[in-house]
Structure prediction request, 305 residues.
Amino acid sequence: MNLLDPGGANAARIASVWWIIFGLGAAVYVVVAGFVLVAAFRGRRRRGDTEAVGRDSAFIWIGGVLVPAAILMLVAVVTVSTTRALRQPAKDPLTISVVGKRWWWAVSYPGERITTANEIHVPVGRPLRIELTTSDVIHSFWVPQLSQKVDTIPGQVNHLDMKVTKPGIYRGQCAEYCGLEHARMAFIVVAEDTTTFERWVAREQRPPGGPSAEQEARGQQVLVSSSCAGCHTVRGTPADGTLGPDLSDLGSRRMLGAGTVDNTPDNLRRWITDSQSIKPGNLMPPVPLSRDDADAVVAYLESLK
Ligand code: CUA
Prediction:
């Protein structure tokens, strides 16, 4: 999450402001340190040297007032103009709606009718408009390598217009303290070329295929008849809960628990049976399942792509 290694247009602007301020700060440091050394070696001026008094007071006015004022003005102009540039509305953007939740991110693409969670796929080079809101408390959407942070505020939709310029996987993080698991409210942005992105969209638009093996079929049975279905949706099945993340593409997602652990069968089994041991305080209750049932649900969920 190094903001000095930008992969997006907004982050590149922010990084240049950082470098300008760093450069000015370094120059001021060198000059001031230089004068300290000069003063130390030159020693006190002789008594009664009136010419030197006038020279020194001009020096104080220029070096102590005018130059700092000019530097601060420059920083102000650069900051304000960058802030304004960051607010430029995107032209013909791809709209992505993101809802901050305790403690994960609901992601949907209204134009494409796609719903997912914690993993945002975007095409490189295309302007993006992220619509941000929350269904509970204030969160803040921040991908340091891509753009500035924008808060999600209850009852209000904020916009973040941005563009990714380099393909890659970027980690994002909730940047506003929102309770117990604020630290584990991460997400990833997967930036890929247009063809790969469109292939992803097409795959997401199809409902997941039915179970292809006996164990997966049993897993589906267990999932729709247990408490899972009350909170989660798997498209094409009776599971249509909306409290927790949509699971229709869970097998294709890289992480579990909003960026907490890798999506592996072992981690998924642990998550289902005892998610509190991975992310204490998260709002998913433990699901009491027999070992075979848990294995079947894991096999089914990992098959959803
Ligand atoms: Cu959500 Cu901090």
